[in-house]
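task queued by scheduler; priority normal; single chain, no ligands, no partner chains; default sampling; output format set to structure tokens
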Amino acid sequence: MFVRLVPILLLSLFVLTSCTGGQAAESSQPDYDTTKQMVADILKTDEGKKAISEVMADETMQDLVSLDASKVEDAINKSWTSEEGQKFWKERFEDPEFVAAFAKNIGPEQKKLVKDLMNDSDFQKQMLQLLQDPKVQEQMLNVMKSQDFRKELEKTIQESSETPMFEQKLMQTVQKALEEAQSKQKEK
């Protein structure tokens, strides 16, 4: 509704300021609040409402202000699937600032979507089927055998082993293993 009134308000403001052109020359600058109040008062009158109705009844004006769902859908599809649209989005997603802002804005919705999908039994079933597919398992194995993956895994293990929490758990595990070994030796 508001989108439809914007052109009308702008038109009313233009007419109002053009009508008060002589007065504007006398004063240095028309007062914003005064102009705003005058436009609001004009729109509230029966004549203002009638003028808005007449403007909105005009087919040309309706074409200008109405958003046809199919036109919006076509525009979106063209912007994503056309060669120019793909180039545009590729360039945008190469910009780190845009990617960060995009991820920040879409992140909560994506997180909610993934959580919803994880609770969906059909999705779970499809994921299990996908992970059990021999081709997918072969791809995962190839990735895990790759040199890059091994380097990253070594780096992660090294970083983890340097944390105090890991050291504490390692010490507890070693101590427990020693105690079990001693108790087995005593039994013999």
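post-processing summary
- Residues 72-161 form one domain.
- The chain has two domains: 2-66, 72-161.
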